[in-house]
From TrEMBL:
Superkingdom: Bacteria
Similarity comment: family membership: Belongs to the CDS family.
Membrane protein topology class: Multi-pass membrane protein
Localization of this protein: Cell membrane
Name by which UniProt lists this protein: Phosphatidate cytidylyltransferase
Transmembrane parts of this sequence: 12-43, 55-74, 81-97, 103-120, 127-149, 169-190, 197-215, 244-262
Source organism per UniProt: Hoeflea halophila
Top-level class of the enzyme under EC nomenclature: transferase
Cellular component annotations (GO), alphabetically ordered: plasma membrane
Catalytic activity: a 1,2-diacyl-sn-glycero-3-phosphate + CTP + H(+) = a CDP-1,2-diacyl-sn-glycerol + diphosphate
Lineage: Bacteria, Pseudomonadati, Pseudomonadota, Alphaproteobacteria, Hyphomicrobiales
Record GO terms (molecular function): phosphatidate cytidylyltransferase activity
Length: 278
């Protein structure tokens, strides 16, 4: 086993334990994890796109918005966090309007800010939020693992050659199938069945996860970056590890808020109830 692979395994195991521990604990522990992910994502995205040099004022506005969002997430004020993301994004665009570079700073705010907010709101405080996060984790991890190994083993037509030459349709299809299987498995453990909505939601989140992976690959290729950073030994950056997770969280958060209101649940419990059919 090479030193690089050994380092990758060790850091992956440590990160997995920390993430699952924070997810199990919930509350301020998971909100703090969501905020940490958000801040590091904003740093990496801004660094990749060279936002500081492009439009310093837009980047400064972006950082102020992210810090405000962090405070609102930690104090459980999601509406205020959403407002900070929106205002920060608009402010970054306006600050860079004369030089045309504020859009990347605005994208950094929305991408990172909504990632932190979606993760924090899905987990919430109750045990339904724990089930919902485990449901999403299972789908994203199964999709990622099977897409990688099946894509390498089976090969075939490329999924998006200009963006990520290594990804194949076979990997995407088997990854999606694995994601659906993992989601259904979690739902069966949590409750008996869940109807046709469970595999449909799992498929949607699996596809969203793969889109997130492609989006980050596109940004890195656009700016000639191999990894989002070197913050995680053997893995690259935070964005490299959570690109699929945050897009799945986006989809879950939006889906839950677009679905009809449940009669017997509210807040984050309602969110998880919708995701798992509880």
């Amino acid at each position: 086993m090479s030193r690089e692979l050994r380092l990758r395994i060790i850091s992956g195991v440590i990160l997995g334990i920390l993430v699952l521990a924070a997810t199990w604990a919930g509350g301020i522990w998971f909100r703090s994890l969501a905020v940490l992910i958000m801040v590091l994502m904003h740093y990496e995205f801004s660094t990749i796109t060279n936002a500081t040099a492009r439009v310093p004022l837009a980047n400064a506005i972006g950082w102020m918005a992210i810090l405000a969002t962090a405070v609102f997430i930690l104090t459980s004020l999601p509406q205020m966090a959403l407002a900070a993301i929106f205002i920060g994004g608009c402010g970054a665009v306006l600050a860079g309007v004369t030089r045309g570079g504020g859009l990347w700073s605005a994208t950094a705010v929305v991408y990172a800010g909504f990632s932190g907010l979606a993760l924090a709101e899905i987990r919430g405080e109750g045990h339904f939020g724990l089930f919902a996060m485990l449901f999403i984790f299972a789908i994203v991890w199964a999709t990622d693992i099977l897409a990688y190994f099946c894509g390498r083993a089976l090969g075939g037509p490329k999924l998006a050659p200009p963006i990520s030459p290594g990804k194949t349709w076979s990997g995407a299809i088997f990854g999606a199938a694995a994601g659906v299987g993992a989601g259904v498995g979690v739902a069966l453990i949590v409750r008996q069945g869940g109807g046709i909505m469970i595999p449909l939601i799992a498929l949607l989140l699996s596809i969203a996860s793969q889109i997130g992976d492609l989006f980050e690959s596109w940004v890195k290729r656009r700016f000639g970056a191999k990894d989002s950073s070197r913050l995680i030994p053997g893995h690259g950056g935070v964005m490299d590890r959570v690109d699929g997770l945050v897009f799945a969280a986006f989809a879950a958060f939006l889906l839950a808020n677009l679905m009809p209101l449940a009669d017997r649940a509210g807040g984050i419990d309602e969110l998880a109830a919708r995701l798992l059919g509880l």
